[in-house]
Amino acid sequence: MNIPAWTKPALYGAVSGAVLLAIVGFMWGGWVTAGSAQDLATKKSAADVVVALTPYCVERSRTDPARVTVLAELEAARSTAKRAVIEKAGWATPLGSESPNRALATACITALEAA
Q1: What per-residue confidence (pLDDT) applies to 105?
Q2: Is 104 helix (H, G, I), strand (E, B) or coil?
Q3: What is the C-alpha separation between 67 and 78, in angstroms, rounded?
């Protein structure tokens, strides 16, 4: 079987073009692997949950009978210990969850300090 002389350069060109296209696509074209896409989706959904639950945390702070005590503790605490105060008060524990959400506690502190 005779293979035409132009076949070898054409195959090299096709392979080189595919490799170059993949490099450009992943480096500058915004292409991602399935694992990277899953990681991005997980981080985005966790951030969205925190944004959605921040008003819930602020409302819990308003209706808590121990509000004055907790807010005094929060005011007296160092910036690194404020999250623990919110978590201990239960304001950063979403309904149906047994443990507080750290990111929610941080967002709640920011919202409470802004108010």
Answers
A1: 92
A2: helix
A3: 18
Its domain, for residue 34, covers: 8-114
- Distance of alpha carbon 115 from alpha carbon 106, whole angstroms: 15
| CB-count burial class (<10 Å; 0-12, 13-18, 19+) for 58 | middle
Q: What are phi and psi of 50, to 5 degrees?
A: -60, -45
- In a domain, residue 3? The reply is no
Residues in the chain: 115
Residuewise pLDDT in 10s, the chain (115 residues): 788 888 999 999 999 999 999 999 999 999 999 999 999 999 999 899 899 999 999 999 999 999 999 999 988 989 889 999 999 999 998 888 899 999 999 999 999 888 7
The reply to whether 64 falls in a domain is: yes
Domain count of the fold of the chain:
1
> Does 53 fall in a domain?
yes
Predicted TM-score of the model (pTM): 0.67
Q: What's the rounded Cα separation, in Å, for the pair 37 and 26?
A: 13
Q: 95 lies in a domain?
A: yes
